[in-house]
Amino acid sequence: MGTLDAAGSGEAGAGTTALSLRLKELEEQLRRTRSSIVCGLNLLLDLKDVSTGTHSTRLAEWAVRLAVDFGLDEEYQRNIEVACLLHDIGKVGVPDSILKKAAPLTPPEREWMNRHPEYGWAILRLFPGFELASLFALHHHERFDGRGYPGALRGEGIPFGARIVTIVDSFDAMVSDRCYRKGLGFDEAERRLNAGKGTQFDPAIVEPFVELARANLSRVGDAGDLPPAA
After folding, report:
1. Residue 131 CB partners (closer than 8 Å, separation 6+)
2. What is the 3-state secondary structure (H, E, C) of 187-207?
């Protein structure tokens, strides 16, 4: 009987080990699939607008560094990274005549442009595992004072990940060249971030982000190509 029990235990142990290895294989396969989806959608952004795709990659580097400094867990960091890389995916639904227009947008054009977070959310939420990232992308144009879009959320009602994306996205947009203007210098961008504390931006995130940006400016994305400080 003892021999049979030992054999049964051995078989059970082998079965548990095999199951554990299979689960790890499936987890790795899922990770690779999600990574491929992110890369594919980011490439789609590049095909739509090269500056948008580059902007998204640079933004993700900044935001993940900030998330680490805030002590956010790895899963939350990954969701922030995905949201940063794909927060503008909804712009595939915006005509090039609006997206690349050098002149100021008309009210109807602005209304169309402002739909891109909702378009992005509608795309990202369809992928398993991207549900939280889709919410960060949806709300990356909210304002801390509640005057943003699309939900007019206020303060703590805005997902924390979205508040991070908002600040890093805004800073990168300030210092990057656009078809209608040259990028700002670092000092002017910093001044505008500080001026927006409590209105456009979460004050608790602005200061640590500025410190991070100053400390890592030359090592994050294309930040070494920023215009000289004003």
Report:
1. 125
2. HHHHHHHHHCECCCECHHHHH
- The DSSP symbol for 183 reads P
Most distant CA pair in the chain: distance in Å?
A: 86
- Torsion over CA: 94, 84, 102, 191 (sign): positive
Q: What is the pLDDT of residues 63-116, one digit of tens each?
A: 999 999 999 999 999 999 999 889 999 999 999 999 888 899 999 999 999 999
Each domain of the chain, given as residue ranges in start order, spans 44-225
Q: Count other Cβ atoms within 10 Å, centred on residue 141.
A: 20
Cα dist. 82→30, 170, 187 in Å?
Answer: 15, 17, 28
- Residue pointed to by tokens 């940006």: 213
Over residues 1-15, the pLDDT tens digits come to 555 555 555 566 666
CA dihedral 21, 26, 29, 34 (to 10 degrees): -140
d(CA 41, CA 30): 17
DSSP assignment of 49-116, as one string?
-HHHHHHHHHHHHHHHHHHHHTT--HHHHHHHHHHHHHTTGGGGGS-HHHHT-SSPPPHHHHHHHTTH
Fold exhibited by the domain 44-225: Hypothetical protein af1432 (1.10.3210)
Helix (H, G, I), strand (E, B) or coil at 45: helix
